[in-house]
Amino acid sequence: MRQIQVAFVLIFLMVPLLYAGTTGKIAGRVTSKETGEPLIGANVMVEGTPLGAATDTQGNYFILQIGPGTYKVRFSMIGYQTLVLNDVRVRVDLTTNLDGQLGESAVGLEEVVVQAERPMIQTDVTYSQANISSEEVDVLPVEEFTDVLSLQAGVVTSGGEIHVRGGRGGEISYMVDGITVTDPYNSGIAVEIENNSIQELQFISGTFNAEYGQAMSGIVNIVTKDGDYQKYSGSISGSVGDYSISEDPIFPMLDDFSLSNIGDVKGNIEGPIIPGSLSFFASGRFKRNGGYLYGERVFHPNSYSWSDNQNMFLIDPNIGLGDGNDGWVPTDPLDTLGNTVMYGQWNPFYYQDSLRSLIISKRDSGKFEWVPMNWSEQLTYQTKLSWRIAPRIKLGYNRMYSDTRSQSYSHAYRWNPDGRPYSFNTRQGDIVRLDISLNQSTFANLMYSYASNHFRTHLSPDPDYYKKLDDLNFDQSFGFHALSDTLYDTDPRIDDYATGNNFEVGGNYMDIYNRRSKVLTLKAELTSQVNSSHQLKLGAEYRNTLINYNNITVLQAGYTGYTPVILDPEDNTIHDSFQSMVDPFTKVPLEGRNPFEFSLYLQDKIESDDIVVNAGARYDYFDSRFWVLNDPEDPNYLSPVKPINKWFDEDGDGEISDNEDSIKTDDDRLLSNANGDPWYRKADPKTQISPRFALAFPITDKGYLHFSYGHFFQNPSFSYIYDNPEFEVPAASGVNSTMGNADMEPQRTTQYEVGFSQQFGRDIGLEITGYYKDIRNLNSTKIENSFIAGDRYGVYVNKDHANSKGITVALSKRATQKFSGNLDYTYSISEGNASDPTAAFYDEQSDIEPEKMLVPLDWDQRHTINSTLTYQLNKMSGTSLIFSYGSGFPYTTTNADGQRTSFENNGRKPATYNVDMRTFFNFPISKSIQLSAHVNIYNVFDIRNELTVYGDTGRSSYSLIPTYTPQYSGPMLNTLDEFLIVPSYYSAPRQIKVGIALQLR
Prior knowledge:
This protein is mainly beta. Among the domains are: 114 residues, Immunoglobulin-like, CATH 2.60.40.1120; 58 residues, no CATH class. Helices cover 5% and strands 45% of the residues. It contains 9 helices and 54 strands. It has a 22-stranded antiparallel β-barrel. A 5-stranded mixed β-sheet has the order 3-2-5-6-9, with no helix packed on it. Strands 10-15-16-13-14 form a 5-stranded mixed β-sheet. The radius of gyration is 32 Å and the shape is globular.
């Protein structure tokens, strides 16, 4: 608490911040139309806001703190005609150059209104970035803002993660209204933002400025909409749809089109509470997707029983065994109850505690229901208040909330879909921001945010099913907590059936996962336009995180009578728990992990007619506030394995003899291990300094070159720092667990970029950029040897490395002659020693030699093309298309035994293609009311893109396994071909959504 108080005082004494940009700047020169001389004291005002400026002795002016959007700018001066420029576009972090020429006035002359011309090339951009407005998002066939990110040059989506210029997933910093909203546990976004709440989306893929931190690949900066201060407006829309394909064995049950499978309702409203002073903006959305991956309810989790006859295996006759099962089906396969009986030679259910046989039957006779297995539903809302306390003071409050419920597809459970868990994620965030203009050239921003994320997974459809361990009845005699319900009451021996190429015929998921993270952030910033050339930013950020975490496995075994129990988490190696962990030194219970971060930065933007320079430096401090082992050979002080750690060395000779039989207490072991050190030591705080430099300069009247260079650091996700917090390693031969490392160093990237931008005519822009990234200190695993021979475990360390290089070409066309569009091409090479932090751990388990050379990373897509095209006949109708192409991702070839035939990722999957389309029609009812209709089609041509492939063929559609394995091998209820058709290996089939909307303006 004292550290929080000190940081709070430091921040607000210094009045600075690590604060992402949420505003832009308008600057230019006002001259006489007749003489060309500068006009001194001319007024320049941004209509609809209190913002404005007067020109200096050179006729120059600048206006700061303008939110992103489109404005009218008014130029006026006594004795001169007023000039109004319409549709002036302001973008985050950028300068809009706007000059005005005023003619001498005559009595009765009206003001001159002119449409502002927008340049296709932004002259002060010194690194690669994209600024996408809400109007641009509205016309595209996209559902989430992440769909827009995937269209940007240099971006690849693989395995559900976004990779920017060859970086790993989770290397993006997400910001809303200038403050970080990245979840530090998994590096994803901590809040949900809907498209209809976004005013502008800024995506930086290049060497970003010093004000941005804790990211190695990119920045996503979202500025949300403010409410209108003068008038009310709003909209409400609804859409329904389904997946539409012809009959296909890959995707069963999708040939019957039903508009009830997908539903989406959203709306927003805005307006004044106190006109001109206090406004509000509110939005909400509920969506449900019934899914497209179906399973058949052939079995239930408890669709089995046991027979005292050890020589029979019973199965319901309605399932049908098919052909190819000779040798183990008897001549007379039916018993008196009509069940198929299998005798004798093969007996998979032999146990030391039981010689019984398994009887499998479906619970609801005759009901083989097909059910969706990848459904989801989500409720989100956002409320934002904006209060102009005074002309130079603005206070804002933004509240965001989302609740998501879903189930994920599991191919093993395709015949037993009720055995899968439910997932729940509740996220909410509050942002308070105070903007103070100290004078025309200097302003300060003070910010506070609080975000929480509650994620849980368990078998119950009730999101509040999770129970704290303290609430369970503890049985001291057995050392476990008995569950009071029967939800997890399933015999684990059923799982022995589903080995190899078999579906699960019973049983269920046996884990209970519960994680809650809370992040408090304090920020402040001081920005000053020192003169017409220099804009300085000085800032700081303090971030404090609290994480509570339980990962529990429900156990059933012979000594529990095969009833579901939860073992005491302090005395076993099954669970990870933060809540029940006890401080090994103070013995004070810890309610979670509580790391904190502090950052400072200084940034200078230098602008002149000949050059633009962004130069700055950043300081980061991080303390994990946790311990690491002093002796990795003996990790668990509650169950030591080294004799000298377990017994007192009474004669001090460094060895334990037979007569030295005084056992050490837990406290004794904490104070001293075999080397005389404490069992744990506190992890060291980590500090980094990151220099950033970028410049741009003109080479033609409408062409610019830019160059940028920077060092970028990112702390490991907390899931790697705090994994296995009790330092437990099961006593089992082999590599059997991983362990977090609170002493890990920040990951680092050094990036270089050079680019060229050129405008052609009035409506075409071209950008060509080359980049190189050297990536070090990536998360990896190191194999540690335990004192017991053969026992090994993995510890997360900074060991992996990679590099990425490429070139991007972006061509854009402004909306003229009814057409607008973008075309991006990226050529890139992404190589490293490992694609995943756990690669070394799993290689060791599989006895695979770690790679000694750089290999293609899993997301190494050499050629990527994204294109958008919009045709708008008039304001009444239009169509937009998105086309995407990606060359094949790498995969590792294998032989018939599943063993690698060469180095990792030596093969290439098939290329991927996709086309999405949106068509809309507007029907004005009055000047203030408009009705519209739209149709969105995703994957228009219903292409089966192969995302996961078999290593022996490089295809999703077939494997060579049937060439050397019979269709029925042992007790298979499914055929081999049935099991090898995996629908989740393919991209989603065609989806059609139709909707209507009502707009009030």
